[in-house]
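Example record used in the benchmark description.
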Amino acid sequence: MQPLLRVERLYKTFRKSKEQVYALKEISLQIARGECLGVVGESGSGKSTLGKVILALERPDSGEVWLDDVPLLQLKGAALREQRQHVQVVFQDPNASLNSKMPIWRSIMEPLDNFPDVMPPFLSGKRTDRIGLAAQLLELVGLPLDHLARYPHELSGGQRQRVAIARGISLNPKLLVCDEPTSSLDVSVQAQILQLLKSLKQTLGMSYLFISHDIASVQYMSDRMIVMKDGEMIDEFASSELTHQDRHIYTKLLVEAAS
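Model output (structure tokens):
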């Protein structure tokens, strides 16, 4: 079966103290439909840069990204904008996607307002006015309806991240990129957000690219994992094989450090 996402030979460099440093070096990967691919690595490994290139928020020096055989990096303007509905993101800081001056229901509806012809199948046939759609999305992420009229500063960090997730799934994207979605949250709240993301993936049938420095979270969320270090992909395996004796020495060190 044709993969949903194909990434071929991505390279990206930047200058650091007059030296050329690789943020991405010959990165190739695939994500199947309905699969979660986890990306783990320490700070500076290139994992977030990889996510931004797949989202077409950054351009690589070379390489290609295909989503359903559409070459994302070759698109511009209206053609690229049209494809953005199919790849959405949940960032580490939910405040980056929430307007402090907007009530929660308006923030949730922003993606659907940008693509008025899109109606996700899990929302169709129900109340379809704007507040009604926002209410359905709020329920999907486990927040009470009285939060619709609140503002971001009135919510906890975990609640704001649930709103960001509601935005992320609102267009029923083919791929949801989760870039450190729990790292700024308390440990108890982290577990709840991971459970929510896993449940939504199963319910809605989305594919995920799940990026984190927390190897335990990545294993919990993912079907397969890749390990990055200094811009390179140094290990790739089924999540159930994380502690296999054949793992790369760096992967073993990450596992040991998390124990």
